[in-house]
Amino acid sequence: MGRQLLLDKVNVAGINTYDVYRKEGGYRSVEKALKKMTPEEVLEEVKTSGLRGRGGAGFPTGMKWSFIAKPEGVPRFLLCNADESEPGTFKDRYLMEKIPHLLVEGMVTSSYALGANQGYIYIRGEYMYVLRILEKAIAEAYQNGWLGKNILGSGYDFDLAVTCGAGAYICGEETALIESLEGERGNPRIKPPFPAVKGLWQNPTVVNNVETIAAVVPIINDGGAEYAKIGIGRSTGTKLISASGNINKPGVFEIEMNITVEEFIYSDQYCGGIKNGKKLKACVPGGSSVPILPHYLVCKTAAGQDRLMSYESLADGGFATGSMLGSGGFVVYDEDQCIVRNTWNFTRFYHHESCGQCSPCREGTGWMEKVLHRLEYGHGKMEDIDLLWDIQRKIEGNTICPLGDAAAWPVAAAIRHFREEFEWHVNEPVRCLEKNYGLVAEKVFEPVTA
Amino acid sequence: MEAVKQTTEFTPEMLAEVDRIIKLFPEGKQKSALLRVLHIAQAHYGWLDVPVMDYIARLLHIQPIEVYEVATFYSMYDTVPVGKVKLEVCRTGPCAIEGAEKIISYIENKLGIKDGETTADGIFTLKSVECLGACGYAPMLQCGEKYHEHLTEEKVDALIEAYRKNPKANYMGM
């Protein structure tokens, strides 16, 4: 196992309580920042660290922070995006449940750099029990003087609260999150203006993922340069990977981003190989919206080099032969899984989660779901495959927010790499359902209801 | 299941919680409390009917339509009656390849209802839902605030029995 910066103390008994967290060196980054550093120095350390947003887009955090507008007399806000809803991703929940104070500490240190005096953690409504864990941690932090007025006598005030969503993937998009936090429907806003200029209640706002904010803690404790030594190239530091699917050891792993994908899948330290001795068929390395990789492009790039668990290496080859690290939602498929069915499943998800503002996404996701449903259930025609390609191409890039792209990419990649399987579904639909799902033939020709 | 309620008023404990949540936001921004207040109401009443939403609008000094539009947008809110125990089974990708569909059919057969329906005795509602962020522990379902993971048919049997005895066991707080 490589270095652990976030989860190193996860197995310490009672680490979810303030006393143990503090005894294990918690809140040192707040002491260091508020007593010895200016906000600008904290920002510089984060820039030096090379930390990139851990929510999926991978945008450099220090640069994002430097965009925040600072008009005189206007409050600024730091929002933590804990709306984790990308299928395949469950790392933030793990971190918040196990070490809630790490997020609280990161919020204080990060807000200090931004000059924000109020922060909110926006957590998805389904994680209500985690919300209660966070509220307890926040209350403990207030009692011990890490939140509130004049923290550590520095003159810096910071208030922190948790609020929640109610089951909407779209609220992970930062402007939809802001809308939701204002008590509205989660419809993304048109940009510009960006949240850094006009965000929460039209004030300058930064929205960061849970893991990003947690990573600020070791960056300030050990220095940005030290953090930047870990990993490879522009993929600095450690990354939490949520591993699921047909593997022996699903769970959350903290990795250094210079390990190979092969090691990650097959080493006993991580996924422990494919379950039941089966063969690898495909892998979605960064959450449902990134392109699926066929087995021959998982461990090696198209150029034959070892593929690493880094932003750059996973994207090597572009969308033609690569994918993305995304949110680190690593889903592994064995030889028995059906790509058409999986693509239909993901498309149904995006159809369900489209907010409905933009026609290409609202109509296109539903249309693709229908076409994929009929392919999977034995009503498909050959020309449906080209139709699907055409629909996804017309969604991508034509919507206000990236949900449209997220819905289009998995369909495009599935057709690109597994076209034969789609054709096979048209020619011999019954065989797939029997082989892969043990479903009886009469179920195959159920009426199309999608 | 009955649509007629004794009252739409919140209990003093609920009102205190609403008050606490409103105070998390700057003055005049009490609308931000709406999503959490709707959760409180739904945990208490089981679902959100119009009189309850109108009451919430009065509590937060907003228009009823502002409550309706939010309640109908987010999939966790029920604006039609549901059973006392809502079994929400994740059906998305990683859960699907680990057998979510079999768990859903097993529950359908066991309770004699289809996905989205409520049992005749008004106790159980089955709902398949999109990713709940527990992909590594699939298949799974959520009931109230509890996550039940690594589901098997035996586990489903046991938890249905437990909930039949105590339908409120699914909520930790208010």
Q: Strand sequence of the main sheet of chain B, in spatial order?
A: 2-1-3-4
Count of runs of 4 or more consecutive helical residues of chain A: 19
Mean pLDDT of chain A: 94
The CATH architecture of the largest domain in chain B can be given as 3-Layer(aba) Sandwich
Q: Could you name the ranges of chain B where pLDDT drops below 50 across 5 or more consecutive residues?
A: none
CATH homologous superfamily placement of the largest domain in chain B: Glutaredoxin
Can you tell me the CATH class of the largest domain in chain A?
Answer: Alpha Beta
Main sheet of chain A: which strands, in order across?
8-7-11-9-10
Structural class of chain B: alpha+beta
The end-to-end distance of chain B, rounded to whole angstroms, is 20 Å
Portion of residues in beta strands of chain B equals 5-15%
Brief descriptors of the model:
heterodimer, A: 450 residues, alpha/beta, Rossmann fold, Ubiquitin-like (UB roll), de novo design (two linked rop proteins), 3 domains, five-stranded mixed sheet, four-stranded parallel sheet, 11 strands, B: 174 residues, alpha+beta, Arc Repressor Mutant, subunit A, Glutaredoxin, 2 domains, 7 helices, 4 strands, 10% strand
